[in-house]
Amino acid sequence: MLQNPICLALDTPNVARAQELARLLKPHIGFLKIGMEFFYAHGAAGYEKVAHEGVPIFLDLKLHDIPNTVEQGLRSLMRLNPAPAIVNVHAQGGRAMLEMARKAIPASTKLIAVTVLTSLSDVDCEETGHNLGAAALAEKLAALAHGAGLDGVVCSPQDLPNIRAALPRSFLTVVPGIRPEGTGAQDQKRIATPKAAIAAGADIMVIGRAITGAADPVRAAQEIVASLS
Ligand code: C5P
Fold it and tell me: What are the pocket residues of ligand 1 if the criterion is a CB atom closer than 6 Å to any ligand atom?
């Protein structure tokens, strides 16, 4: 297990709030996740303000385009200072895109793949021409990402057993949908407690509202860490 497997999801478009959360929580988390909502609003300058707090960043922009465009996009992102610790692309971009993406970034940045968005049902997959069903498609895309040299995947707690059974243990799993005992599921459907997710093989847990929405976010993060031992 990583020293601190919590990746705090900074789901806010507000730079001051993001900096405040980073400052407050940096002793209690392993990573910060910056997504589209923040990056599209504040770009490199906003990213750098948060990243300078010193917590490694998972830059969750889910690139998906032709191989050359994704390669060039990632090269631009690698000019951020400090560089993100983790970036991601959609596995559905295909093998050539995944291989080009891996070549575009140094090994010091982990490249992970989104397989099937957890918002998609089997019916949604079928409507977009994927008749395998979401779970089987996710497994296939995880194997494709692994074969293309990516470091890991984003997956739900429920996907962990299949991925752990099919791929080497070194393949990184970054897992959202985490809810500590006694907190509400909100809009998440496929959830697990931190302890259960780690036991099932999660390497990094993406956690947002269970920490950012708590009356005392530091205490919430500490309690999550304590619950793992
Ligand atoms: O607040 P909560 O812990 O539900 O936040 C989870 C974070 O993980 C959010 O940033 C959400 O966008 C992200 N995420 C997710 N499910 C996925 C991929 C990412 O919840 N499949």
Answer: 9, 11, 35, 117-118, 154, 176-178, 188, 206-210
